[in-house]
Design goal:
It contains 19 helices and no strands. With 414 residues, the chain is mainly α. The longest helix is centred in the first third of the chain and has 27 residues.
Length: 414
């Protein structure tokens, strides 16, 4: 196999195995930093050895064994007291069996410890088990990357200083971890569905993994309506994933997507999943977001979209998810229902809360363009272009800038 082919195999193994390798070492050593360092060493060793020896039949087992041996060597070199020697002995022991139906989901429940603040446990789990970068997690939480890096360091320190055990809680304590587990799966899906950086707008592997884990969670907790709501939300979005970009990789807006290519069977299945959850009378943010997605997915044409209902649902959602991003989405719905001027008033109120978020000037630009305020729209598109994190979004915004520039030239010549 060529070096390029091996690199691709290692990258694929990273996405599949990173969380499992790190979790295994954390459970055996109790040292989060050591676990991550030795996991990184194992992947570096794979890049060095696999071109010579071939890709192993079970890459995950090879990586885990290599990382474990590296950790064993490190601990042996620093074992100067009885506690460290005991850790070495633990490292040589096989993993305990688990009755969980899915190993990755078990690890997420383990990582989402209630001793950590909600945001910290979600961010920490995304970094440790999902393999998202600090920058990707920072963009998901709308904070600067250095800020998120400090939060992750503090989370590790709290785990270490408080001697928080790395183990799955008993069944009766699982419900208290469900909200943070749902948040992990939601943000994992979001990073796949609308990547925060890079060449591709959609990262299909992340979407598929988040959906797979959500299916397991619904199977484990069939009476949890928010789990069903989250799964329905993911699947409703996934039903139209193939139409979000064209063959050239350029972004296609919701209004312009070819709805005949949406997976109607999947949409019907998702609506059937959502309705019983809503009937339980325990509404939550994921159920409401799924209801919004259902409004879009069940409209046969863009013109048939019930924007007044969507705006009302966003009004309910902000009581459960008080977020400026929710307010921005509500402003878009109000603009569609009541006109761009009404939406623009709401958008302007968010300038402070969403400073640096590219979709704020992008939305403002669209509304200004529809109001005929071309010069202001052009400036807003330029601002959004400077902030846009993916190439697909940058091409989309640059296209509107060219069109507005051409329109201005045409007006001047006439």
């Amino acid at each position: 196999m060529t070096a390029v082919g091996v690199a691709a195999e290692v990258a694929a193994a990273f996405h599949r195995e990173w969380g499992s390798v790190v979790a295994t070492l954390i459970r055996m050593t109790g040292d989060w930093d050591l676990a991550e360092e030795c996991a990184q060493d194992a992947f570096a060793a794979a890049l060095e050895r696999w071109p010579r020896d071939g890709v192993p039949r079970r890459p995950g087992a090879w990586l885990t064994t290599t990382a474990r041996n590296r950790a064993l060597d490190r601990l042996r070199r620093t074992a100067t007291e009885a506690a460290k020697l005991q850790e070495v002995a633990m490292l040589a022991c096989p993993e305990e069996p688990t009755g969980w139906p899915d190993e990755r989901l078990r690890l997420i429940f383990t990582c989402c410890h209630p001793a950590l603040p909600m945001e910290a446990r979600v961010a920490f789990t995304l970094r440790t088990l999902a393999g998202l970068t600090t920058g990707e997690i920072a963009r998901a939480f709308l904070v600067p990357e250095p800020t998120m890096a400090k939060r992750l360091v503090r989370a590790k320190q709290k785990i270490r200083n408080a001697a928080i055990p790395y183990r799955v809680p008993p069944d009766h304590l699982l419900p208290e971890r469900v909200p943070s587990v749902l948040a992990v799966l939601y943000l994992l899906f979001n990073e796949g569905y609308a990547a925060s950086a890079g060449a591709d707008l959609v990262r299909s592997a992340l979407c598929a993994e988040a959906i797979r884990l959500a299916r397991w969670l619904v199977g484990m907790m069939p009476d949890e309506p928010e789990a069903a709501g989250l799964l329905a939300l993911m699947l409703l979005h996934d039903a139209r994933r193939a139409t979000r970009v064209d063959p050239a990789g350029d972004l296609v807006t919701l209004a312009e997507q070819d709805r005949s290519r949406w997976d109607r069977a999947l949409i019907e299945e998702d609506v059937a999943l959502l309705e019983p959850a809503l009937r339980r009378g325990r509404p939550g943010g994921y159920q409401i977001q799924a209801a919004i997605a259902a409004c879009h997915a069940t409209a046969r044409t863009a013109a048939e979209t019930d924007w007044a209902e969507i705006a009302a649902l966003y009004g309910r959602l902000r009581r459960y998810v008080p977020s400026p991003v929710v307010e921005l989405n509500r402003a878009v719905a109000v603009a569609e229902a009541d006109g761009p001027a009404a939406g623009l008033v709401l958008v302007e109120e968010l300038s402070g809360a969403l400073h640096g978020y590219h979709l704020l000037p992008a939305t403002r630009a669209d509304l200004l363009r529809r109001l005929g305020r071309t010069d202001e729209a052009e400036a807003a598109y330029a601002q959004a272009l400077a902030l846009a994190p993916t190439e697909a979004e940058r091409r989309f915004l640059a296209g509107w800038l060219r069109r507005l520039g051409g329109s201005r030239t045409s007006r001047a010549s006439s």
